[in-house]
Amino acid sequence: MPSYTAPTRDMQFILHDVLNVSEQDTPGYSELDREFTSAVLEEAGKISSEVLSPLNPVGDSEGCVLENGVVRTPKGFKAAFDQVREGGWTALDLPEEYGGQNMPYVLGTAVGEMFSGANQAFTMYQGLTHGAASAILVHGSDQQKETYLPKMFSCEWTGTMNLTEPHCGTDLGLMRTKAEPQEDGSYLLTGQKIFISSGEHDMADNIVHLVLAKIPGGPDGIKGVSLFIVPKFIVKDDGSLGDRNGVTCGKIEEKMGIHGNSTCVMNYDGATGWLLGEEHKGMRAMFTMMNEARIGVGMQGLAQAEVAYQNALAYAKDRLQGRAVTGTENPNGPADPLIVHPDIRRSLMDQKSFIEGARAFMLWGAELIDRSHRGEDADAEGLISLMTPVIKGFLTDEGYDMTVLAQQVYGGHGYIEEWGMSQFTRDARIAMIYEGANGVQALDLVGRKLAQDSGKHVMAFFEMIKTFLKENEGDEALKKDFLDPLKAASKDLQASAMFFMQNGMKNPNAALAGSYDFMHLFGHVCLGLMWARMAKASHAALEAGTTDEAFYKTKLATGRFYMKRRLPATALHLARIESGAEPVMELDAEAF
Amino acid sequence: MPSYTAPTRDMQFILHDVLNVSEQDTPGYSELDREFTSAVLEEAGKISSEVLSPLNPVGDSEGCVLENGVVRTPKGFKAAFDQVREGGWTALDLPEEYGGQNMPYVLGTAVGEMFSGANQAFTMYQGLTHGAASAILVHGSDQQKETYLPKMFSCEWTGTMNLTEPHCGTDLGLMRTKAEPQEDGSYLLTGQKIFISSGEHDMADNIVHLVLAKIPGGPDGIKGVSLFIVPKFIVKDDGSLGDRNGVTCGKIEEKMGIHGNSTCVMNYDGATGWLLGEEHKGMRAMFTMMNEARIGVGMQGLAQAEVAYQNALAYAKDRLQGRAVTGTENPNGPADPLIVHPDIRRSLMDQKSFIEGARAFMLWGAELIDRSHRGEDADAEGLISLMTPVIKGFLTDEGYDMTVLAQQVYGGHGYIEEWGMSQFTRDARIAMIYEGANGVQALDLVGRKLAQDSGKHVMAFFEMIKTFLKENEGDEALKKDFLDPLKAASKDLQASAMFFMQNGMKNPNAALAGSYDFMHLFGHVCLGLMWARMAKASHAALEAGTTDEAFYKTKLATGRFYMKRRLPATALHLARIESGAEPVMELDAEAF
């Protein structure tokens, strides 16, 4: 059975050696000293390894079962959910006012990676609730906040997001679900929503659905969409639960993975709902959830790559097969362990160098969110808004590829469900799709974010890299292995942006045909930057005479691998981008 | 439910416009005129679409069930197997002497792609039988051939390959299964084999297992391995079936995919077997099966990519979502079809340009096998031996990636089993693993095939490209779009081979650390060559005033896409290769 060990050492390195969180002036960051974050991460790691990880294969093989309108979650899920709830893990980074722990998002993100890595399907129940609660927190009335938030923060009640309908996913303007206004100010909702994660289950007393619907007579298309709170049980004035609302689970989907999470068809048959935020401004409110959710999904990509890598590594050290080409390394055994073989190393290093770079990228992104929300830093907000599709798209695509590499290390055993490696790839697959398929992320990046505020944020990104390179140009230890490759990669990114500017105005397809490559190019540059920053921090630690020399030397070697073997992908992406729209758009649809 | 349409038009193009099969002097090729191959392909296509394809999801959802030692295949499999048998499809390219149809392998390969694309799990029962029969044909005694081949050619009896044991896959020298010689010349086999595809089932009267085992007292390791014929039922002298042999299925594995094929643990408890070929020369005999099987597996990668693409394309034309950025294309509908969006195009073109290039590569490889076997052409044999790991490794890796792209076109529906796209990726995944995991293919390519016969075959490959470029250098229509990119890509391949030569002698790891990239680089150059040849053939057809202009123009546009957007990957692979052993091998195993 696969196992999960929380990467606390690496997280501490990023938080303290690279991001220097406790020295920053973002509100709440001064508390984040090494001892405090270590205590939180160790405790979260323990729950992840001991409680959530053993339930991961159980969730996969049992799945969720719908019987007489009730969804039964896999054996052990409810007890584990209670344990997570009792440990106070469900609202780590939410405000104290409604029962949260008010810790920075950066710490919540680190904990989130652990939970997701140990058990993605399970953690989604909590993750969706967090997203729904955040939307109510930002857009809800005081009464709505008082009614729902304390129970949602504690996950006594869970939450969902209801966007997709059978005929529309990305294009929500086609939506048909109706919300008819009632005299008491409530609405009656009618329609069908699909792909509703955690839509119905047996782990919470109530489920608070956030539902997009159209109020009849409103504007056409996406501008006529409003957001509603539709609880499974109506909440009475005294906060107790009243009548069962007219919302039911019609079906649980059979999926490729995340079987432990109930993906429901939800039927709204005159269900009572209350407007959240303003009429016809539903998309704005929904995006509060979506942006957070997108970053959380990027984290899932990284998290599945991490757990798959851990198990591939253990197998590579344990499984004896063949002899090292440079001479026997395990003379007392019948063969050498897999890890002696160069191609197994190549695979493990691809995984390791992605994961550690991605983790730094992820936590840097979370830090920007804290600077934006807690520190009200508009530049940070612009930058994270720009990078959100990159975090979502690049980390889930690459994260998935890494689970495939990890599975491959197991040879035939990787294909057998019993060994657990298949589950990691099957679970990781969804992250490329939900919360906006990765092609939509690329479109968001190139079609919207690049030009946002007159391109201010992407210019700031380039400026930041330039400044970093300039500040460190005298550092000979960094130059050849880290700064030069970063410079080359960021030149490729700039050339791509330039190509879009020069050609995209005349023909938008010239930019959009390269959008997917641009997202990946951008991702590589971000990881290159993170590796350069991590290398700098590692040199500093080694020069300061650290007692953990092995850790920092390994970090440097892993970074050099990334710069030499992964980062040169930027040139290929640039070549694809610069080939423009024609190769992509030339054929008529009928010619395919 | 997904569907399958046989790509007969494209196959005819490759066979006749590109390979000009009927004009070649390879024995049997003169019969392969357009009418004949069309008749065979149309008929095979019909069975694929109408019989095999509808059973594909059935096989996936039902799987195989072991009860009281008997394996039940999914509903409909047996009737379909009878139909395939009765149609004479099981020994298309095997000799007439034992009931085969004696058609060239190139035609068998085209038909094989159809069957595999329509239903991979089903087609494996027949494919394994073909491989086992081929090994008996080459290495068996006259009596063995007479006993087994007629029934195996007709698939009344099926065959298996038994290599892997729980503790050894790639490293077969560690094998423990024993074969004790008996006085009557037979052997008693004892041991356990795992991952035995089609190991036990209810579709044939007998199952002929080919089993690798060690005769006690023989040489250690791989040099002491012999190959045995172990039938499920002992065949009596009159050809009728006698006693049940001591071989049983202990378990069916739960796998990620190919559920319709029974992957068995086979227990040999003093089972009677007969030596096939010479004592201790089992690997040589097994490789007869393995090489054929490896090419067949490469074909599976292509076949799954094709069927996944067909369904993605249909969805992209049908699903209405969003509007084209350059202006509405479907004004009477609520939205435009997905195919208007550049990033959907990018994905479809990636798939289409890979598939068509891969099909040409595959059929060219099959033609080389015919030249080698039927024409006794040693150069062709050397070339296909060199390219076998490329066909297996590159086509299955890329084929898998294409199924992932196709699944992505479906958005959320791609993740729901009901739509069938998940099955294509789950089924395609095994092809990267079995018959030698792709890392082992890369090792075979760089560690063995490159230097084979003093590097003669790789030199011949480079020479062939040089000749092609020279022969066509005056062709302005080809030059910029096809010849120049092919030249650049083949330079990258030559530079890689040069790097290995210069560095691999001193340090074998310097070559092996780049082996995987070399396999992919090689694959891209092969597809680049095929696209150049296809472009040449298309220009010729257009100049000759073809009535099917649209087909050839589409072919050229698809080829240009490959050259512009896919082939530049060679530079990235070269960069990775030239970074050498150090980034890959630097860390101690403990440092991971």
UniProtKB/TrEMBL annotation, chains A, B:
<dbReference type="InterPro" id="IPR036250">
    <property type="entry name" value="AcylCo_DH-like_C"/>
</dbReference>
<keyword id="KW-0285">Flavoprotein</keyword>
<dbReference type="Pfam" id="PF12806">
    <property type="entry name" value="Acyl-CoA_dh_C"/>
</dbReference>
<feature type="domain" description="Acyl-CoA oxidase/dehydrogenase middle">
    <location>
        <begin position="161"/>
        <end position="269"/>
    </location>
</feature>
<comment type="similarity">
    <text>Belongs to the acyl-CoA dehydrogenase family.</text>
</comment>
<dbReference type="Pfam" id="PF00441">
    <property type="entry name" value="Acyl-CoA_dh_1"/>
</dbReference>
<dbReference type="InterPro" id="IPR006091">
    <property type="entry name" value="Acyl-CoA_Oxase/DH_mid-dom"/>
</dbReference>
<dbReference type="InterPro" id="IPR025878">
    <property type="entry name" value="Acyl-CoA_dh-like_C_dom"/>
</dbReference>
<feature type="domain" description="Acyl-CoA dehydrogenase/oxidase N-terminal">
    <location>
        <begin position="79"/>
        <end position="155"/>
    </location>
</feature>
<keyword id="KW-0274">FAD</keyword>
<dbReference type="Pfam" id="PF02770">
    <property type="entry name" value="Acyl-CoA_dh_M"/>
</dbReference>
<comment type="function">
    <text>Involved in the assimilation of dimethylsulphoniopropionate (DMSP), an important compound in the fixation of carbon in marine phytoplankton, by mediating the conversion of 3-(methylthio)propanoyl-CoA (MMPA-CoA) to 3-(methylthio)acryloyl-CoA (MTA-CoA).</text>
</comment>
<dbReference type="InterPro" id="IPR037069">
    <property type="entry name" value="AcylCoA_DH/ox_N_sf"/>
</dbReference>
<dbReference type="GO" id="GO:0050660">
    <property type="term" value="F:flavin adenine dinucleotide binding"/>
</dbReference>
<protein>
    <recommendedName>
        <fullName>3-methylmercaptopropionyl-CoA dehydrogenase</fullName>
        <ecNumber>1.3.99.41</ecNumber>
    </recommendedName>
</protein>
<keyword id="KW-0560">Oxidoreductase</keyword>
<dbReference type="InterPro" id="IPR009075">
    <property type="entry name" value="AcylCo_DH/oxidase_C"/>
</dbReference>
<dbReference type="InterPro" id="IPR013786">
    <property type="entry name" value="AcylCoA_DH/ox_N"/>
</dbReference>
<feature type="domain" description="Acetyl-CoA dehydrogenase-like C-terminal">
    <location>
        <begin position="461"/>
        <end position="588"/>
    </location>
</feature>
<feature type="domain" description="Acyl-CoA dehydrogenase/oxidase C-terminal">
    <location>
        <begin position="281"/>
        <end position="444"/>
    </location>
</feature>
<dbReference type="GO" id="GO:0016627">
    <property type="term" value="F:oxidoreductase activity, acting on the CH-CH group of donors"/>
</dbReference>
<dbReference type="InterPro" id="IPR046373">
    <property type="entry name" value="Acyl-CoA_Oxase/DH_mid-dom_sf"/>
</dbReference>
<dbReference type="Pfam" id="PF02771">
    <property type="entry name" value="Acyl-CoA_dh_N"/>
</dbReference>
<dbReference type="InterPro" id="IPR009100">
    <property type="entry name" value="AcylCoA_DH/oxidase_NM_dom_sf"/>
</dbReference>
<dbReference type="InterPro" id="IPR052166">
    <property type="entry name" value="Diverse_Acyl-CoA_DH"/>
</dbReference>
